[in-house]
């Protein structure tokens, strides 16, 4: 659907009305909230919870919020939590079984979720998760139930961060697909407007109830201009041409060992990654031994147990674990699923306590 | 252990009793634990002590006197499975901080008649003297991990006690990293999970109660603390807490420059 046909304008003052409409339509709303020095993805009841006039400064291993005085709503990029936190919960019950063999399955969660403020990289990440968890031979029922009713209100990144490299991964900074409504925040000379690009019926339902005027040609050309500017602001680059083959050729490169001197194997990169989907299962038994539960819980290829097979763990060294992760993101994922496992959001760089940078490391390994 | 009620014994060495109290703190489950296990020896709870052998021995505290050494050896003989509980029993605990000092000199200042004090030169984890079948970490141990251990013992399965980092739990909880967002030094990346990332949840760095995780890169984290502006002495003191005498943390001073 062409952009011009379905673009509306909403005064930023009416942002609260948008949240109100989402709630009226029965959505549980997740959006950006300031907490503990970062902007996180959390439940939203009213627009007052959405931060205004904040920017983030992200560097390898560092994240700081700074105030800005222009009252912009979306003057920052992605925080530590991707939509994975909501759509693929960190821990959930798979089933309970009684000693007599009777099995109880938990009721699937049927709530309708609306995400407000998702960035283009995260939409791409959801596309990748869909492919793995919905379109493969085994459908993940928990993800499917949460994903089914979800509404995505994206926000175009007009001020990308230092660790963003979405232009390299062809995933941003402006959303191309995967959303219901996409907002571009226009702010100049005291004129504060959201341009809403609506491409689905679900999105149209929201905008119709909200009541918006059409966007003007000037506003639409401002959006295009911002998109070009945003692309040019992204300085971090990963040349993905031949990267898979280059990495395969360098499995024994000495730089892997150098990385492992710094890598903590703490698992932070995998848990903040919007596409890392690995889980493990564990069983609980009651003291009375008449009931057992099986739970699914996030896991990480940085844990030793992750590669445990009969006789021990395959990846004992931190070097082999880091190499496994980076190779999966940029090489083996391509063979497995036909896309990269990296969307260039930069979270793994920011939230690594020692600031290990996937872009720099991949470039060094390629030689 | 299906078929008969396993006999359990709980012992204390140099420690604060907090881990034993964590057992008593399992209030909702305590009656059932009493039914499923025969609590044969647990001096913190009852003077009624039944003789061994026992199926399971839970040991709190570190070994710090010659008498402790003899006692732990005889306990090992009495218990089919020996499980150490808490930072003292698994890493030496806070009293192991004396391992870096001169004990004789301490004794002179603290006791009127130091010649009556019989102590070992070092306070050590139980595993330095006898074979230990399983370790439950923490200061004190986490009650849910304790319950998992007891349930697993009854079912004859391996307890589900992850050995990965505190960061894993912290991120699963949805916390914002205190080190990345606030520059607060946090031991979480090198410390074993199990506490539910309590300290970072309250915006402070991990103290390290649960001791080293499965593959701690102490050198890298210690170096990053220096980068955050700490001096070498403070970095060493950060690691020298509840589990400072653990094998992986005790060498930290040799790992950082400056």
Task: Report on this structure.
The complex is a heterodimer of chains A (367) and B (258). Chain A is an alpha+beta fold and 367 residues long. Chain A folds into two domains: 230 residues, no CATH class; 124 residues, no CATH class. Helices cover 33% and strands 25% of the residues of chain A. In chain A, the strands form four sheets. In chain A, strands 3-2-8-9-10-11-1-12 form an eight-stranded mixed β-sheet, sandwiched between helices. In chain A, β6 and β7 form a beta hairpin. By secondary structure, chain B is α/β, with parallel strands linked by helices. Chain B folds into two domains: 149 residues, NADH:ubiquinone oxidoreductase-like, 20kDa subunit (Rossmann fold, 3-Layer(aba) Sandwich), CATH 3.40.50; 90 residues, no CATH class. Helix content of chain B is 38%, strand content 11%. In chain B, β3, α3 and β4 form a beta-alpha-beta unit. The longest helix of chain B has 13 residues. Chain B is globular, with a radius of gyration of 19 Å.
Count of spatially separate domains of chain B: 2
Which band does the percent of strand residues of chain A land in? Answer: 15-25%
- Shape descriptor of chain A reads globular
Rg calculated over all Cα atoms of chain B: 19 Å
Q: SSE order of chain B, as H and E?
A: EHHEEHEHHEHHHHHHHH
* Average pLDDT for all residues of chain B: 96
State the secondary-structure class of chain A: alpha+beta
Number of strands of chain A: 16
Helix content of chain A: 25-40%
Ends of chain A: how far apart?
43 Å
Total beta-strand segments of chain B: 5
Number of domains of chain A: 2
Sum up the structure in keywords.
heterodimer, A: 367 residues, globular, B: alpha/beta, 13 helices
List the topology elements:
The complex is a heterodimer of chains A (367) and B (258).
Chain A: E1 7-11, H1 15-24, E2 27-35, E3 38-43, E4 54-59, E5 62-67, H2 84-87, E6 91-98, E7 103-104, E8 112-118, H3 120-133, H4 141-148, E9 151-155, H5 166-169, E10 181-188, E11 191-198, H6 201-210, E12 213-214, H7 217-233, H8 243-249, H9 255-262, H10 268-272, E13 279-285, E14 291-298, E15 308-309, E16 312-313, H11 318-337, H12 347-350, H13 358-366
Parallel strand pairs in A: 2-8, 8-9, 9-10
Antiparallel strand pairs in A: 1-11, 1-12, 2-3, 4-5, 6-7, 6-14, 10-11, 13-14, 15-16
Helix pairs in contact in A: 1-6, 8-11, 9-11
Chain B: E1 7-12, H1 18-24, H2 27-36, E2 38-42, E3 54-60, H3 66-78, E4 79-85, H4 87-91, H5 103-110, E5 134-136, H6 143-155, H7 166-172, H8 178-182, H9 198-201, H10 218-227, H11 232-239, H12 247-250, H13 252-255
Parallel strand pairs in B: 1-2, 1-3, 3-4, 4-5
């Amino acid at each position: 659907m062409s952009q011009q046909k379905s673009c509306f304008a909403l005064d930023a003052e009416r942002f609260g009305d948008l949240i109100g409409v989402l709630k009226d339509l029965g959505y549980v709303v997740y959006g950006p909230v300031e907490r503990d020095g970062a902007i996180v993805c959390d439940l939203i009841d009213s627009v007052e919870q959405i931060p205004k006039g904040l920017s983030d400064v992200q560097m390898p291993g560092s994240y700081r919020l700074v105030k800005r005085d222009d009252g912009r709503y979306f003057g920052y990029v992605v925080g530590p939590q991707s939509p994975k936190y909501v759509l693929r919960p960190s821990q959930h019950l798979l089933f309970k079984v009684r000693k007599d063999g009777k099995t109880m399955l938990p009721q699937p969660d049927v709530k309708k979720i609306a995400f407000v403020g998702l960035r283009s990289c995260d939409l791409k990440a959801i596309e990748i998760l869909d492919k793995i968890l919905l379109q493969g031979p085994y459908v993940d029922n928990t993800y499917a139930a949460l994903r089914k009713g979800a509404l995505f209100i994206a926000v175009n990144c007009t001020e990308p961060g230092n660790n963003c490299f979405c232009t390299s991964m062809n995933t941003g900074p402006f959303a191309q697909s995967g959303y219901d409504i996409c907002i571009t925040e226009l702010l100049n000379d005291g004129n504060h407007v959201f341009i809403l690009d609506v491409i689905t019926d679900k999105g149209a339902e929201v905008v119709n109830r909200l009541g918006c005027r059409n966007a003007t040609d000037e506003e639409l050309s401002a959006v295009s201009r911002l998109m070009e500017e945003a692309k040019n602001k992204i300085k971090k680059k990963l040349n993905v041409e031949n990267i898979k083959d280059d990495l395969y050729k360098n499995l024994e490169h000495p730089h892997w060992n150098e990385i492992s001197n710094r890598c903590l194997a703490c698992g932070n990169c995998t848990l903040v990654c919007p596409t890392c989907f690995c889980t493990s299962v564990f069983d609980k038994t009651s003291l009375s031994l008449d009931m057992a539960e099986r739970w699914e819980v996030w896991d990480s290829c940085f844990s030793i147990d992750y590669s445990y097979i009969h006789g021990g763990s395959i990846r004992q060294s931190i070097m082999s674990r880091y190499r496994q992760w980076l190779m999966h993101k940029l090489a083996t994922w391509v063979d497995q699923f036909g896309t990269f496992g990296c969307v260039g959001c930069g979270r793994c760089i920011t939230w690594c306590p020692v600031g290990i940078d996937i872009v720099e490391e991949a470039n060094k390994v390629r030689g | 252990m299906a078929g008969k009620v396993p006999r359990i014994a709980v012992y204390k060495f140099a420690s604060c009793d907090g881990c034993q109290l964590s057992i008593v703190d399992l209030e909702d489950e305590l009656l059932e634990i009493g039914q499923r296990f025969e609590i044969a020896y647990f001096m913190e709870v009852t003077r009624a002590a039944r003789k061994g052998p026992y199926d399971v021995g839970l040991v709190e505290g570190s070994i710090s006197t010659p008498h402790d050494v003899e006692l732990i050896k005889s306990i090992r003989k009495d218990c089919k499975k020996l499980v150490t509980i808490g930072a003292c029993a698994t890493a030496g605990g806070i009293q192991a901080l004396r391992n870096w000092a001169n004990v004789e000199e301490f004794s002179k200042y603290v006791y009127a008649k130091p010649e009556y004090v019989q102590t070992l030169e070092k306070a050590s984890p139980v595993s330095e003297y006898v074979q230990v079948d399983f370790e439950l970490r923490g200061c004190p141990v986490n009650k849910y991990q304790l319950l998992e251990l007891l349930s697993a013992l009854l079912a004859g399965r391996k307890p589900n006690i992850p050995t990965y980092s505190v960061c894993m739990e912290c991120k699963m909880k949805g916390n914002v990293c205190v080190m990345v967002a606030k520059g607060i030094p946090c031991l979480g990346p090198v410390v074993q999970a199990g506490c539910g990332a309590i300290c970072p949840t309250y915006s402070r760095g991990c103290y390290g109660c649960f001791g080293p995780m499965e593959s701690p890169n102490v050198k890298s984290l210690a170096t990053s603390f220096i980068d955050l502006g700490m001096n070498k002495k403070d970095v060493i003191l950060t690691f020298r807490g509840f589990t400072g005498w653990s094998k992986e943390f005790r060498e930290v001073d040799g790992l950082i420059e400056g």
